[in-house]
Design goal:
The chain is mainly beta. The protein contains 1 helix and 7 strands, in the order βαββββββ. Strands 1, 2, 3, 4, 5, 6 and 7 form a 7-stranded antiparallel β-sheet that branches.
Length: 90
């Protein structure tokens, strides 16, 4: 399962309605996570490395648009406190 990290223009972000999505915040920490739906998110602050069960490590931070696929099991390693807009696709 692939985690996709992209850079989107302000226009693309507005078209998706990103700035109207809820905000999630997390302090520096490390925890297991499972995605039971696909999640899109846009990082306003922070830096994170996510490690999948397959051993893939993906890092992303402020200004990145990230898509996590449904069914992904991973470990979040929050290196700098995170503040992000997120959207769960059911």
């Amino acid at each position: 399962m692939e985690i996709r990290v992209q850079k989107l223009s302000e226009e693309e972000l507005e078209k998706k309605g990103v700035f109207n999505w809820p905000i999630w915040e997390k302090e520096i920490s490390r925890f297991d996570w499972y995605y039971d739906t696909t999640e899109e998110c846009y990082l306003l602050e922070g830096y994170v490395t996510v490690e999948t069960k397959e051993g893939e490590c993906v890092s992303f931070g402020k200004g990145d648009f990230v898509i996590f696929p449904k069914g992904l099991s991973c470990i979040w390693d929050v290196k700098e406190p995170v503040r992000k807009h997120y959207n769960l696709k059911r």
